[in-house]
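Standup notes, protein team

Yesterday: finished cleaning the Candidatus Methylopumilus turicensis set.
Today: 2OG-Fe dioxygenase family protein structure.
Blockers: none.

Input for 2OG-Fe dioxygenase family protein:
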Amino acid sequence: MAGTHPLLKLREDLLATVTKTGFSFCPSAAMQAWLLTQSPDALSDWSDFANSWNNMPLDEHMADGGRYRRRRYAVLNTTSRNSEIVLAPHQPHYQSLNYNALNGGIARDFEAIQTSTIQSNSMQSVLKFCQTVFSELMPNTPWHIECHQFRIEANDEAFGKPTPEGIHRDGVDFVLVMMVKRQNISSGTTTMHDLEHKNLDSFTLTEPLDVAIVNDHRCMHGVTPIVPLDPTQPAYRDVLVVTFKKFKQ
């Protein structure tokens, strides 16, 4: 009997893990293999994609007064697993205080992710990956999609907090967190918890394309503060966060 195709095995293992535990860590090599099997050009513009994290504006909505987070934001929609993913009109980001006790309860306006970044092969391949995986986990679902570019900065005066709200849920169905770049930092460890805050696992996204996938109904997550290795040099953590939530018409 012929062996299972490696990509099919990867998909089966990923879906089985998320179904069983509510989350999964997908290492960079596996993620690259998945994306490049789908399209040989999937990551052809990765350098430009990663550079789009440079020169992002500060997040001006930090209730802790922090000046360590930069971000951009976009909203997209799709009607099914195989339908086109469409950029929606730019709009504020909102989370209730139930999900974000620090910064929730207000509509927060963020600068839009650049159109060239949204249209890049790298972004489109990651969005398609999410669409495929999350539609397998929740079939026949129209999706409201939110993309967040985050840069967390650290220096010798202050740690950078990737999740200043602490261990939390996002108020969606599924979450993907993808490492883009780590520069001159230690820590930044992802921690997974059940809904009673019991620790389930921890891992650190270190390589570009390391990915964490979370079923937001079943798990809470957080990330430990980052610390500069060399305080005299820039220190930051760049990630892409993509959330999928059932679109309510």
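Follow-up from PR in the comments: The chain has a mean pLDDT of 92.
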